[in-house]
Write a structure and sequence with these properties.
- By secondary structure, the chain is an alpha/beta fold.
- Strands 1, 2, 3, 4, 5, 6, 7, 8, 9 and 10 form a ten-stranded mixed sheet that branches.
- The chain is globular, with a radius of gyration of 24 Å.
Amino acid sequence: MNTFQRLRSTIGRSFLALLAFSLVGHAVAANLKIIVPASAGGGWDQLGRATQQSMQAAKLAEQIQVSNIPGAGGTIGLATLHNTHKGDPNALMVSGKGMLSAIVINKSPIDLSQVVPIARLTGEYEVIVVPTESKIKTMADLIAQYKANPGSVSWGGGLAGGVDMLTAGMIIQAIGGDASKLNYVAFGGGGEVLTAAAGGHITAGVGGYNEFAQQIKGGKLRALGITSDKRLAGVDIPTLKEQGINVEFVNWRGLMAPAGISDAQRQEMVKKVTEMSKSEQWRAILTKNDWTDLFLAGDDFTSYVETEQKNVKSLVHTLGLVKK
């Protein structure tokens, strides 16, 4: 090999090495944007920032910007994803079951059929509680009182139209009651529900298990039932289904991408989020926050969201939450 051939070979190898480095760098160096359609500190915000930390720790992205865009149950953030980031393969939005009811109640022109589901990450089951001194000892007792006098049973939970109210409505439907006449008392947050439930100011409190866990373990509240499909490990609370009430409910949270991205770009994002879900950082966050891992990605998650939209829309209308 003469000098010219050796020089050409060296240049060729250098070019290929530089190209490979460039391609790898592009795969991990994308600057991602995560929209949190709620104020800082809540469940969606926690999930968004946990995703940020985990993807950076797993070197799936070098920089990730989290933006809080609160309002109207998440539908303002949803509109931002659709209108501002359409076609952007490096944009994501935190979403969840609570957004589905907000879309219907607020008559949002954008719904989840107009974005691209990427993955369901976590979920929290709802629990029904009463004060420990309450004469109501079981779900059967609560249902018996309801059937004797529906108006005498007040169900307390978060904001009207939220997941707590949907849970109560589903229970009423399951036992043959009229969900449109649900006696529901809405509170601004879990702390207010907790105070009202422990103080006996409402017949039964409805909320995420983690919100009530310490008071249940400490003996201040009695848990009557939980909306999981089977009993949770280490949690001695009977499911509604095992008590003859055919209700399963999970307040899931996940990630959506904007419309307009290609299928290859969708698959790449699904791949990244799947890798993140297996990372040590993510597993540690799940354990620390006592989050239930409900990972579901790609086409399976898309089908799940389609079914959820139909079910929640029907229930919201049944509860009379949509103003004419």
